[in-house]
Amino acid sequence: MITATNLSKVYNGTTVLNIEHLDIPKGQNFGLVGNNGAGKTTFFSLLLDLIQPTTGNIFNKEITVSQSEDWKPFTSAFIDESFLIGYLTPEEYFYFVGELRNRNKADIDSFLEQFTDLFNGEILGRNKYLRDLSKGNQKKVGIVAALIGEPEVVILDEPFANLDPTTQIRLKKLLKELSKTVGTTVLISSHDLIHVTEVCERIVVLDKGLIVRDIETSEATLKELEDYFSREIAEA
Ligand SMILES: Nc1ncnc2c1ncn2[C@@H]1O[C@H](COP(=O)(O)OP(=O)(O)OP(=O)(O)O)[C@@H](O)[C@H]1O
């Protein structure tokens, strides 16, 4: 579904991402982990054509994302709050995204019913602008909006950050079901090794822009990741 070849991004002479080859098959629940500055957001930004690669290409369903917009109808993402529109209420924002995805208000209203528990009475019908919601509630809106219109590819940067424990548990279930029952290709990044190993069937570790681990998730994965990330502490 998604392929990166010879993909690199260089800022001021520093290579922040360098991926020789990466294939993410359709329907995979794919997790990206790595310390601060490892290149996770850079990879997602390239995939969404928010930045241009220095070298190489990234293909979404064989479409070169930097050269064609044909991937947009089946791809959605929530990277950060800049994806939201602060002066809209959540309802207005969901309807707006719905229009982009050819869904009318009635479609959106019925789509939103499944998120009543997740919203916990704090999102809909409150007449609050998105800019006035808490960080966690903004994130809920962004993630749910990214699911409007049954996208084939969903990209979420740090989806668990700022969410309360109950919402994290609900979100994990939701993300697992997305790939299992609907066949959505789900890409997430996370600093939470427990969440990412629970949700993702494959985990790639980035270190200074390089892929240093590519793991099919198993019972041993959490320990393997914890060992990997504690190695520097152990060496010191
Ligand atoms: N516009 C830019 N100009 C210069 N350097 C940049 C720019 N954008 C990102 N970088 C650098 O690229 C590197 C990778 O950043 P990126 O945001 O992809 O990391 P990340 O893995 O998402 O980190 P975090 O876990 O902190 O979110 C960092 O060193 C960052 O400073």
UniProtKB/TrEMBL annotation:
Source taxon at top rank: Bacteria
Xref: PROSITE patterns: ABC_TRANSPORTER_1, ABC_TRANSPORTER_2
MF-aspect GO terms: ATP binding; ATP hydrolysis activity
CDD domains reported in the protein's UniProt record: ABC_DR_subfamily_A
Signal sequence extent: none
Keywords: ATP-binding, Nucleotide-binding
Database matches in SMART domains: AAA
Record's protein name: ATP-binding protein
Organism: Christiangramia flava JLT2011
Highest classification ranks of the organism: Bacteria, Pseudomonadati, Bacteroidota, Flavobacteriia, Flavobacteriales
